Amino acid sequence: MNNISINGLDFIPIDSGSSWLGSDKGGWIYASQRPRYEVRLPSYYILENPLTRGQVAVLLGEETQPEHSYEPMTGLTISEIQSLEGKIASLLEVSEINDEFDVRLPSFPEWNHASSQINLEPGIVEILSDAAATSHRGGMMDGRPRPIETNGPLQHHRLAVEMHPRKPESFATSNIPVDRPLPNTVIRFVLSPPRTEPIRRVPRSADVLGNLKTEILWTTVLGIIPSFLIPVIRGFGSYAIDGWANLLFGGLVAGFVTGAIWRPRRPSIAYEEGIQESDGLLANVSQ
Question: By the number of CB atoms within 10 A of the CB, which of 31, 33, 64, 105 ranks highest?
């Protein structure tokens, strides 16, 4: 696969492959990163660098380059981004490239899969094409963008990658509004083949009963039992009976605190375990 150049935009090829996203850590603080799941991606193309001010000027047909033309273009809104997508798609149609591609912002699986081959600017916020979400439940397992499935305020938000200001390989995901310009936000585009196969998604539902059993077990082992054992070991066995209410409450609090940090790892979801949209009801899986 060779690079694709369109009006000064240099798209580099990314090979197809499989990768894992999310975390299988069981603590409550990792809930937004669960479940860990496999994504299988076709080959695609991505801009090596975020879009610059000069590149935007060229796409808009401006005759003169703006000041600091090599700096990343920041503060674009979703309507401006979609306008630029349309211009690139038009250029693609009249080029000698015969393949059909979707021109859009990368999905998080595409961005993550290409992260070792693209330039990552420290301290910037990169807007992605995925709809805002509170966890990976319902995520797309073939790399296509997660669709907007809400009519509330979150329909105007998108997933974004926030780069660490000093550690270039460290990042976190967040949801940001895209209906107004925000400082320090940048974009890059992908040329990605349209997905024609049935949608395969991470199951939306957790195994609530299984998770509840796990929580009861470990709250008892790590919280309630030690709470009653401590006064007995220290020679205050009578308090284990007389003050059982206080000890029970203390054990529940201790169990809650330990649950925020640690619980057994949750199952990871392989591609074959995903649920197709046409299947109707989505199966439960412990998340």
Answer: 105
